[in-house]
Amino acid sequence: MNETTRYLQSVSEERGIEVATLVNCLLIDAVRANASDIHIEPWESTIVVRVRLAGVLQELVHLPHELMEKLAGRIKVMASLISYLTDLPQEGHVPASPEFGNVELRVSMFPTVRGEKIVIRIFDPQNRSFDLGQLGFEEDTLQNLMKLLARPNGLLLLTGPTGSGKTTAIYAALTHLVNLHGPTISISTVEDPVEFHLPMVSQAQIHPAKEFTYPRALRSLMRQDPQVIMIGEIRDAETAAIAVQAGLTGHLVISTTHAGSTAGVFARLINMDIEPFLLSSALSGVLGLRLIRINCPHCAQPCPPDHTLEKLVPAEALAQATLKRGTGCPQCLDTGYVGRSALTELLVVDEVLRDAILQKLPTRALQQVAIQQGMHTLWQNGVRRVLKGETTMDEILRVLAADL
To answer: CA 324, CA 291: separation in Å to the nearest integer?
Structure first.
């Protein structure tokens, strides 16, 4: 039984519920379950509280609808938001407190027709590892990524959907550079927002309301003599142009951008009016990222191959595979999975790919060129993980459904 349910059962009637205690119980339950987010949302007849565990939302508890205003008010006070403002979105931050496990919270309030929806992102500075070797990257990806990070200049981009681990991977890359070079390297970042404070790295947070935007920050940053520049996200043509120029003029630039696929990053930047000849010269690599759930070590059992694997993998390879599936246990909250690992696709820009970019080949053709040059796709790496017994085919299909 979780803390929230235990507390609610100890209260004789609804009027006796202390909202501050209830919110603390919700936070404690989420932290203990290693949740990344809490969703508090008014439904037709109840307030549903859900937590995101390993990327999947799961119900935690249902609360009486009458508590919505009190819950929202309490969380607004904690996040230093305007308590009486209910018809506009608000965002705030709750510093770490021993009351709920010394985690930092980022709060987002959003007005709906049934009341305010609250989403709380949980950051645990104690349990976040920014070690490249601990992120679960495939060995060839890790080695090639370290080679790209060793270059003195160029543009390295990460792409993937929201929540795919891009920020963690970039922070791990910056930590790797700090550990490698110590005080001899100058690293600066421009982010929105700064999620964690990194040692020996100058981090800046943009404030669009004060006209401190990505382009303005980057133009000023270029006069700060940085060797490595991290840009939170390339969102517009001006930011893209500055990033490409910086990569060409002796800086190592690391950033993220949203694209339909790893090879689709080139079309995305060309659509931002970046000339192909500049792009082919500046861009050194693109890392596609997804997060997959890992089989629970406590309840994972050998299992037969499903029809999808039988069609994809030769019988000889299946005979040597170690297929496993979690059956569900208290340690994994009956999900069959514990924790997540990175699934990657690293596209290294070499001479052959540069020629293809200059010819403005479509995304699918660029993908084929990259595969011919040795790139292992997300799908290929995912199937390898299944054959090793690290995860299931169902999980790979769930995560990569949009990429198939």
So the answer is: 18
Side chain identity at 364, as an amino acid letter? R
For 104-158, how does the pLDDT look when each residue is reduced to its tens digit (9 = 90+)?
899 999 999 999 999 999 988 776 779 999 999 999 999 999 999 999 999 999 9
| 294-311 pLDDT, tens digit each | 999 999 999 998 888 888
**Is the pTM above the cut of 0.70?**
yes
- Kindly compute the dihedral angle of the four CA atoms of residues 123, 127, 131, 135, in this order, to the nearest 10 degrees: -80
Residue 175's closest CA among 143, 136, 131, 137?
A: 131
Q: What does the alpha-carbon distance between residue 63 and residue 82 come to, in Å, rounded to a whole number?
A: 24
Backbone angles phi, psi at 47, to 5 degrees: -100, 120
User: 60: closest CA among 15, 128, 125, 120?
Assistant: 120
Q: Are 332 and 338 in contact (CB under 8 A)?
A: yes
User: Could you tell me if 59 and 4 are in contact, meaning their C-beta atoms sit under 8 angstroms apart?
Assistant: no
Sheet with 37-42: strands ordered across: 56-64, 46-53, 37-42, 115-123, 104-112, 90-94
What residues have CB less than 8 Å from 202, skipping those under 6 apart? 186, 187, 188, 189, 224, 226
Q: Compute the average pLDDT of residues 84-97.
A: 91
Tell me the pLDDT tens digit for each residue of 227-273. Answer: 999 999 999 999 999 999 999 999 999 999 999 899 999 999 999 99
Model confidence at 25: pLDDT above 80 = yes
Cis peptide before 193 (omega within 30 of 0): yes
